[in-house]
Amino acid sequence: MYPGTEGLPPRVALLQLITASWVSHAVRTMAVLGVADHLADGPRTVGELAEATGTDAPTLARFMRALAALGLVAHDAAGRVGLTPLGEPLRAAVPGSLRSYALAIAAPSVERAWHDLPNALRTGEPSFPDVHGLGFWDYLAAHPEEGALFDAAMTGSAELRSGVLPAAVDLSAIGTLIDVGGGQGRMLAAALASAPGLRGVLADRSEVLPGAEAFLDAAGVRDRCDLVAVDFFESVPTGGDAYVLAHIVHDWPDEQAVAILRTCHQAMAPGARLWVVEQVIQPGDEYDRAKLLDMLMLVLFGAQERTADEYRSLLQAAGFGEVVIHPTDTPYSVIETVRH
Ligand SMILES: C[S@@+](CC[C@H](N)C(=O)[O-])C[C@H]1O[C@@H](n2cnc3c(N)ncnc32)[C@H](O)[C@@H]1O
Fold it and tell me: How many Å lie between the centroid of ligand 1 and the Cα of residue 180?
């Protein structure tokens, strides 16, 4: 059951589900206006905030009331508006900021694909290419501002999965870790920080690498890291003791997912490890955000979230053998296999 609806009369709970996108619109608009950054130095009057955000003060006062109802801001006794701990990660310049995530995942281009979910269910095909005339990755390449926002969004959301490798596997035995589709390198940076003897290779689309270089530099690990432009359907770097695919396989339908895994298999030497970091769908009807993420994967890519057995089948189809799944105390698991 959707969190917060337990125990409510069915019609009341249903109204909450029907209108859940209102919340998303409000959070995205808070990010668009940069409200959290304008409140970073402490509470301000609505008038001050309206001037800073270029908005109409009486209308903004109503918006602040809505945001306060969601717990993202709070009014003090003098009526000024301040940021709450829930609103804090919507600041742009805090570690693990989710501002880019709010802007990119709730972007109008993505929303338009969601609106076509009924059609995606009829056809089993993604709606994003129909709506925009381009597949998602080509669209990002053609719209560099949205592309940069998406990369930053992944870095923000990668905060949650960044620590899973050091927590779940032994990095001390690894000389070189190759992060395939590593984005800006948030996960690689965490792995390098946790294992001083480790070297890293970040392999991603060429458009992503300048942002990755800046990120790895700022994280203080650039000197232990190479950056390589790849198309992971063609090739990935050889020479890794371990390869990680974090939040990659779920972006692709089975055929392409197997193709990416095969490219890795071909590049890997016998004994090299592969770590697939994903949310593994559990059996049963429990609420799991990944079951809704699954629908986003459908509309964007015609792709899907998967169960443990589905990940095993993909890996076996790509030539890998035994699979061990390491759950973590995050929503992510490390799905481990070895190249024989
Ligand atoms: C959902 S993001 C995941 C990024 C990162 N691993 C993380 O955990 O946040 C998917 C990544 O796959 C990369 N990608 C998409 N198509 C690719 C391709 N054909 N070759 C290499 N990388 C690709 C994207 O640029 C993006 O960085």
Answer: 7
Q: Which class is 158-338 in CATH?
A: alpha beta
Q: Which of 250, 265, 326, 340 is catalytic?
A: 250
Positions of CATH 1.10.10.10 in the chain: 10-92
Residue 132 among the catalytic residues: no
CB 38 within 8 A of CB 53: yes
Amino acid at 81: V
Retrieve residue 60's tokens.
């903004």
Q: Which tens digits make up the pLDDT trace of 310-338?
A: 999 999 999 999 999 999 999 999 999 99
Q: Residue 151 C-alpha to ligand 1 middle, in angstroms?
A: 9
Task: Say how many C-beta atoms besides its own lie within 10 A of residue 48's C-beta.
Answer: 15
Looking from the CA of residue 155, the nearest atom of ligand 1 is 9
* pLDDT, tens only, 194-231: 999 999 999 999 999 999 999 999 999 999 999 999 99
CB 171 within 8 A of CB 138: no
Distance 185 CA to ligand 1 centre (A): 10
**Is 10-92 in CATH node 2.60.40.10?**
no
